[in-house]
Amino acid sequence: MARAFRTRYWRPGTDFLKEILRAVRGTLKDGDFLVLSEKAISTALGKLVDESKIKPCSLARFLARFWMRVIWGYFLGPLCRMSLRTVMNLRSYPLEEGARHKHLALRASGLLGALMWGSEGGIDASNLPFSLVSLPLEPGEAQAIAEEVAGALRRRLGREATVLIVDSDRTYSLGPIHISPRPTAVRGIRGGLGLIAYVLGNALKLRGRPTPVASSDPELGAELALRIASLAEKVMGHGAGRDVWEMASRFGVGLTEVTWEMLESVEHKPVALVRARR
Questions:
Q1: 245, 119, 89: which is closest to 181 by C-alpha?
Q2: What share of the chain in percent tops pLDDT 70?
């Protein structure tokens, strides 16, 4: 059984622990898995960068103009079986905004991450206004937050639950082998592989599931964590959109013209409960 909980949009400064406790009070049971959106937590913590203030380097401009428009738009995109909508968006990748984004990606996740077509190293622009993007939680930071939330559930609600922090970026599986473009603290997942994991996963049609970034139970195995993350994603949805193009299209505005108020008008479900059949 999987159930998502709607909360208000978590702007920077939101007490997300209070929001979580309010959402699951009276519903959470011992043995449940509580799944949290990394993006929502990162936003609440204010781990945001305004890309409009970035002056891109020459390498970032090259990545925006050639790597994204040509290599992804005509070669890697089709190879990875992207939708026609996404491929066409890549072929017209915004040069100035894109160069700023690639500059940040180079600084934050290195070249291997910056070569990704989106969510480079976990950097995410969806469900954020204007030119803001969120930085990913570091694996150790995410682990500490998951343990903090699990402790609060124990102390304030009297419930023993395993907390998972999850990102929509895919982890690709081939039997017991699990690889992910972005870093993760969950044992059994080889993270931080950037472009390599994404291209291999999609070109070889490997099974892709949301990435568990951290768990309050360090012994939780990768396969179980991935199954829980997949179940949770089905009920949590994607807020205003899966990517910036989908988000901007939803509101009928430009890529950097989405506002906080627009985002608050959309249903957000950053918390989900997954319960095993008893």
A1: 119
A2: 100
Chain-centroid distance of CA 229 in Å reads: 12
Beta-carbon contacts of residue 265 (< 8 Å; ≥ 6 apart):
none
Name the β-bridge partners of 3. Answer: 273
Q: Which two tokens stand for residue 149?
A: 């939330």
Q: What percent of the chain has pLDDT over 90?
A: 98
Q: For 190, what's the count of Cα atoms within 13 Å in the CB-facing half-sphere?
A: 13
pLDDT score recorded for residue 276: 82
The 10s digit of each residue's pLDDT in 110-137 is 998 999 999 999 999 999 999 999 999 9
Give the number of other CB atoms < 10 A from CB of residue 79.
12
Torsion of CA 216, 217, 221, 225, to 10 degrees: -30
Per-residue burial over 41-74, b = 16 or more CB atoms within 10 Å of its CB, e = otherwise? bbbbbebebebeebebeeebbebbeebbbeebbe
For residue 160, give the amino acid letter: E
Buried b (16+ CB within 10 A) or exposed e, 17-33: bebbbebbeeebeeebb
